[in-house]
Amino acid sequence: MKSLLDLGVKVFADGADLNAIKRLYADPLIKGFTTNPTLMRLAGVADYRAFALDVLKVVPDRPVSFEVFADDFGEMIEQGREIGSWGRNVNVKIPVVNTRGEFTGEVIHALSRAGIHVNVTAVFTGDQVRDIVAALSGDVPAYVSIFAGRIADSGVDPAPVVADAVRLLAAKKRKAEVIWASPRELYNIFDAVRTGCQIITVTGDILKKLPLIGKDQLLYSLETARMFYDDAKKAGYAIQASIDALRR
Fold first, then answer.
1. I need a surface site. Which of 62, 129, 148, 201 has the fewest CB within 10 A?
2. 192 Cβ partners below 8 Å, 6+ apart?
3. Domain membership of residue 21 as a residue range
């Protein structure tokens, strides 16, 4: 089994826990960080800008993505310019559509043309990827975050969508990279590798499983059986034969 560092996919940590970000920054496996308003709200972040600036003090030299939260295109552009000014390593996350289902190509184009590194997020379809390609500036780095986990949740295989996006972006926008976003399990890292995807965002619960990569399967089987046995003992479970059964 290859080391995860040799697999050819970059791991970005996804979350909004500042202490966890500090810890993960010390790990050379983690090549970047992403967050979003939902994760920040769940983490209890009250001041968006203050939190972002604290993160950038911890992570001054790896990509960090912060998302706009306006719904009007003009306000999105204003927020994107402000967020993009916070650091040279900042990527501005732009949802591919607003809450009315309108494609945000105007925002993507304006920010990308201004030299701001965008991360187009909440992408689900090949048609959306093609629209994004048309909106991006060809000479400015960008990310396209395909929500592979949510695609899979709907019963659709995300791998062809991701692989097609990788090929299209390589042909048309050579400075843009594809992110396998919203992973559901550790194996998604290997799914991302097979599609040629350059980056995968990984949440804290999946990061905890990284030491399992390459684990001996027979040993894992034995440990699992022992876990069941030990938990039954700790719970004090017992099955007593009924009186009728004893009489037979």
1. 62
2. 9, 148, 162, 180, 199, 200
3. 4-214
